[in-house]
Amino acid sequence: MDDAVERRVVGPAPHIAAPTTCTHIMLWVVAALAPSALWAVVTMGWVAAQLLLICIGVALATEYLWNAIARRPQTLTDGSALVTGLLLAMSLPPRTPWWVAAAAAFVAIGLAKQLFGGLGHNLFNPALVGRAFVAVSWAGVFAAAPSRGWFQTLPEVTAEGFDAISGATRLAVAAADRAASGAYGFDLAAQYQPLLLRNLEGSLGEVSAALLIAGGLLLIVRGIIDWRIPAGYIGTMALVSWAFGADALFHILAGGVMLGAFFMATDYVSSPMSKTGRIVYGVGCGLFNAVGRFVGAMPESTTFAILFMNGLAPLIDRMTRPRTFGWVKRDA
Amino acid sequence: MARQVFRGGVHPPEHKEATSASAIQWAPVPARLVLPMSQHLGAPCVPTVAVGDRVARGQVIGSVDAMVSAPIHSPVAGTVTGISDTLTTGGARVAAVTIEPDAEQDLQGYVTVTADDERGRVRAAGIVGLGGATFPSVVKLTPPKDMHIEVVILNGCECEPFLTCDHRLMVEQPERVVAGARHIGRLVGAKRIVIAVESNKPDAVEALRAEAGSDVEVQVLPTRYPQGAEKQLIYALLGAEVPHGKLPAATGALVHNVATAAAIADALEYGKPLTERIVTVTGEVARPGNYRVVLGTLVSELIEIAGGFSGPVERVIAGGPMTGQALASLDVPVTKGTSGIVALAPGVAAPAISGDQPCIRCGRCTVGCPMGLEPYAIANYANRRMWDSAAARRPIDCIECGVCSYVCPTRRPLLQLIRLAKAAALAKGVS
User: What is the pTM of this model?
Assistant: First the structure.
């Protein structure tokens, strides 16, 4: 009993704490993305594994070195740098040169996160900032067929197999076809199944919409992310696609929508905190993503749609404050 | 309209199974009792006895002439051996009367309280809110003239994890609870009497329903913390929000704890003063249970009565783990507001706060706050000593339930920071 007394601590109430810590949350996100990442490695091959290792490794190393140089406590165990590296890799095409991926990871952690003050202080989603940085800086490297957009490096795997044809993504082709003739040159409905299960165009994260949806639902069920953001995002995307006379299902399955809606837009730090705010934010993401696709020149507008809404998140929080219990109006 | 569900809240592991079936038993009277002169909210009492005096069980040993106060009675027959300061469970130093009980005790008998009217007897019996708030009950039985009480609500929610003292009272003495409910209803002229119990206590619901006639409703509410918080309880039952800055009576409701109601019934029917209470002693103790404890028993003795610690203990809590106080010393007395003594093992107890943890803006505190506040925002301002900005986010409306700190994944001491903001706001005259 003396031992017990010596170990006793005092502190303010409450004296118990929910089991979910920051690290748990981050590891759940990793677990939810792991099937997609593994499937990407299996289907795309070693290039995908390399990309994952480079992004995660550089993200962790950048955070470690930053903290060491700035003489701040080490923060790798919170898991956030791991998630950023993983998300970044999932957002990049498999044949991204290693030095472009490394630069993206360095910018993500160094510029977008640590420079702002570390975890919790970044205004923008670090992985998306890293991706946007390299997409803009090395558009030529990024895109094998620059005339058809900036996100088209990918080996076209067709019935003929890997034949080193660097083709455009279905999405870019669809956009180009629309721009040229107002009609699609291929059957969109025939794309549902590959987009859901095995798609080798686009980024690692686009390999299987079904796996991303499963991971996203896992996070929702576990209470890690709020359903309001992906629901607002995907719902709006589908609605606007329909309004533009496009194939709604194709447009929510293609490109970065699923990765963006379930894993990028739901980043805590850069999204609103109130329930209402999260719906507004999700709808905004969907809207700008769709506008980028149908009106702008960017078939792959997910990154910038979410980054734009990240910037609006503080404003959304401000405008959607919860009503205080016992007050008739917020400013009564 | 009954809403049943208040906004926000959490459902922590209940940990009630260790004591929810253990019948209330008398704790042996220890060799020394320490009775603080302030066991209630309001004016502290002044000792009315001197060292060497013989006292009878139920005799007044401390009182003060103030509207908001409650006299203190000797829980035993014995001798006053000292009048000096003591540390309380809350960490304050207050004047206390020390009594050495006689070897032979008749715990069934006591000096009955006398007064001209019923409210006077409740006052003279020293009854305070036994849920932990310790507000003198007679004050609540005397609502302001311009307020009419429509509904009396007895709070049998016991939403704090670990605690089962109210649960066992409702199971074992439902007739006292129902009798108290009727007395309170009659005294304030209420049309409706409701006893609210959380769904995790079906045996209590059954026992109460067997006693309650057509005049007393027993309502089952979802098990969700803080269901037993006054404002959330009223909202769940009546759909009415207590307006900011107003008394709960503004909604026509008056809330008393079930144990308080039973004590009121005992005072009115038997003239019994408040000299003991039921305390749940649980967690890492050898014989967890619900003990009827004479006030003034030291926590250290009570833990021995419960068989001592059964394993490593990181925190010992007076009250429940969500709102109670961690004890720095176990040589503090059980008082009227001590609903439980909970010994938390390492791993069950929240880890000690270390350093400045970042807010990752997950929103759990905002979604969980039953008052619709944004705890992270108040805490961020408090952390930077920006008291005016903090005050604008209404820390004064905080009911200090602790949900925000409980759910925070980076373990920020949100409630503690909100308390600082609240104190700063009150000091600046914000209302």
Answer: 0.90
